[in-house]
């Protein structure tokens, strides 16, 4: 049968075939909320009717500033299912960036969790296209006083509608969701996902050698729903009928562990920084995991010590995974092949340290500086190129031009990661060619930090590079050349960043040098700086 692949199919399936399956959410309001897929589907239809009643049309962007929770999940399905585009804004960004991104996306409505009221108040009068602001709560919890114009109440919108909305059918290549990445230089860029790409990605992500999800699983996505759709898990869960557990804003070790145990969580997913907090809590209190079977770790390289602790001490399998916002995001997952099961523990960890094998649908190759393909021998390292039906061809509105490289008659997306690929197909990231810093799974734009530093009257030249940090993986280190005769201290320069960026973007350290190495074209040679400061010990470490 000819049938378009639509996001609404996932919800319809979950409602009809897993209607009693549970969705448990720790709410911003402070309590634990429970509902079923059947209720989720009904409320999503009513929410879709409410969107239509407010004039949200096909292709319109509807933004969210929200934690992982059932209302956010309802928005995932109500917005995309009705043909509008779900735009998950990242609340960790500076308000100026949120305004820029909301304007660029031309968001029409903004739904937000109460935790983000101060942020919404800061941007409400500045955003150009948002016509309605909706607080994701009930009447009893609505803020008494708010400067947000015409603030609406989520539960009232849902309650006002009947449950008779029918999910429309349309072209599967229509847009379903939008996510911006500041992972490259210049303005943030939008990755627009289609219904087709989202469904194909969900099939591939759920496979046994991928994230291995089933109806027997209880999945707790720690990775935020504003990070590449929580790596696709809200879609995969409906596809396989898994129980879902949402942690809301409580991502500390104790809160997560309590939820893992009380809800019988079998699998989870998140960046290494989150698991550090969890493991510290579990180890310090002599606890364990009674139901957890495996956890997906990605976004940054998973340290082998973390793998050992999870696997050897707690019997939790680590699935090391790699991907990008531009890839929906799953690209590779590290699961062993049959011949590797015979390897000893050390050899197995060496395999698991790699980012893994391409999931079906993702093709990848590595190339040298001239674009020649390099062998898959586990030694040759080159820029990693990818292609596939859930990998972007260009950014939203053509921002940044045509990103694809084409050297064999086919378009390949350059990941900005440098890697090897071994004979068994296992890819391992060895370096990064893109000029960014990744702290606890979130990007920090080095160029923005350099521009601010250069604006200081005592600074002649500034370069910002990633320095390694035991908790955050990477933190910004500023390397500065002062103007002749100028006086400037580390503290004075760091204070200069106040208010200009999100606080957590502030560099962890400043080193003053006589000169920054420049290449033939006058560009700062950051790879040489990274080499020089490889062992730099940050005062925050
Ligand atoms: P994600 O949500 O997967 O972190 P982003 O688009 O924010 O998506 O970041 C993608 C980039 O993060 C990759 O290009 C790579 O540089 C880095 N990355 C992701 N996963 C890993 C990993 N397992 N090991 C090393 N780097 C990773």
Notable traits:
541 residues, binds adenosine-5'-diphosphate, alpha/beta, GMP Synthetase, Chain A, domain 3, Rossmann fold, nine-stranded mixed beta sheet, seven-stranded mixed beta sheet
Notes on the structure:
With 541 residues, this protein is an alpha/beta fold. It has 3 domains: 7-193, Rossmann fold, CATH 3.40.50; 251-434, Rossmann fold, CATH 3.40.50; 437-532, ANL, C-terminal domain (GMP Synthetase, Chain A, domain 3), CATH 3.30.300. A 9-stranded mixed β-sheet has the order 2-1-11-10-12-13-14-15-16, with helices on both faces. Strands 7-6-5-3-4-8-9 form a 7-stranded mixed β-sheet, with helices on both faces. Helix 1 (7-17) runs antiparallel to helix 2, helix 1 packs across helix 3 and helix 10 (253-263) packs across helix 11 (272-284). The longest helix is centred in the first third of the chain and has 17 residues, at 37-53. The mean pLDDT is 95. It binds adenosine-5'-diphosphate (ADP). Adenosine-5'-diphosphate is lined by residues 181, 183, 227-228, 298-301, 320-325, 329, 355, 415-417, 429, 432, 438, 441.
Fill in the CATH topology of the largest domain. Answer: Rossmann fold
Helix content: 25-40%
- Broad shape: globular
**What is the name of the CATH class of the largest domain?**
Alpha Beta
């Amino acid at each position: 049968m000819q049938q378009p692949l639509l996001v609404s199919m996932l919800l319809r399936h979950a409602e009809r075939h897993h209607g009693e399956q549970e969705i448990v959410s720790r709410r911003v309001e402070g309590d634990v909320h429970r509902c079923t897929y059947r209720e989720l589907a009904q409320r999503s239809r009513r929410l879709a009717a409410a969107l239509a009643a407010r004039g949200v049309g096909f292709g319109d962007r509807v933004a969210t500033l929200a934690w992982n929770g059932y209302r956010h999940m309802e928005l995932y399905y109500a917005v995309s299912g009705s043909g509008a585009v779900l735009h998950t804004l990242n609340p960790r960004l500076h308000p100026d960036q949120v305004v820029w991104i909301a304007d660029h996306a031309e968001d029409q409505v903004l739904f937000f969790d109460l935790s983000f009221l101060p942020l919404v108040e800061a941007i409400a009068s500045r955003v150009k296209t948002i016509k309605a602001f909706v607080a994701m709560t009930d009447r009893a919890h609505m803020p008494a006083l708010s400067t947000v114009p015409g603030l609406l109440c989520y539960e009232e919108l849902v309650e006002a509608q009947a449950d008779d909305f029918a999910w429309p059918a349309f072209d599967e290549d229509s847009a379903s969701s939008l996510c911006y990445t500041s992972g490259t230089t210049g303005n943030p860029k939008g990755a627009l996902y289609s219904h087709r790409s989202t469904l194909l990605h969900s099939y591939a992500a759920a496979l046994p050698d991928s994230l291995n999800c089933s109806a027997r699983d209880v999945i707790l996505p720690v990775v935020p729903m504003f990070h590449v759709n929580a790596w696709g898990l809200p879609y995969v869960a409906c596809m396989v009928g898994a129980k879902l557990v949402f942690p809301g804003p409580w991502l500390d070790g104790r809160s997560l562990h309590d939820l893992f145990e009380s809800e019988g969580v079998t699998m989870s997913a998140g960046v290494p920084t989150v698991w550090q907090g969890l493991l510290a809590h579990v180890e310090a209190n002599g606890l364990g995991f009674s139901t957890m079977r495996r956890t997906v770790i990605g976004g940054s390289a998973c340290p082998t010590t973390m793998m050992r602790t999870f696997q050897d001490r707690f019997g939790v399998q680590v699935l090391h995974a790699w991907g990008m916002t531009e890839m929906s995001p799953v690209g590779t997952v590290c699961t062993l092949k049959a011949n590797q099961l015979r390897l000893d523990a050390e050899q197995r960890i060496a395999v698991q340290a790699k980012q893994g094998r391409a999931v079906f649908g993702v093709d990848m190759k590595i190339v040298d500086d001239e674009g020649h393909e390099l062998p898959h021998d586990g030694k040759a390292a080159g820029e990693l190129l990818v292609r596939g039906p859930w990998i972007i061809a260009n950014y939203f509105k053509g921002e940044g031009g045509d990103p694809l490289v084409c050297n064999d008659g086919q378009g390949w997306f350059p990941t900005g990661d440098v890697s090897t690929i071994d004979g068994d197909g296992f890819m391992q990231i060895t370096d990064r060619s893109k000029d960014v810093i990744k702290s606890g799974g979130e990007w920090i734009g080095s160029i923005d930090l350099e521009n601010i530093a250069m604006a200081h009257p005592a600074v002649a030249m500034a370069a910002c590079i990633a320095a390694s940090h035991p908790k955050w993986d990477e933190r910004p280190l500023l390397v500065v050349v002062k103007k002749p005769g100028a006086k400037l201290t580390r503290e004075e320069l760091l204070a200069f960043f106040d208010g200009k960026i999100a606080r957590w973007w502030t560099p962890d350290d400043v080193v003053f040098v006589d000169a920054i190495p420049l290449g033939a074209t006058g560009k700062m040679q950051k790879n040489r700086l990274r080499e020089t400061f490889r062992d730099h010990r940050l005062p925050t470490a």
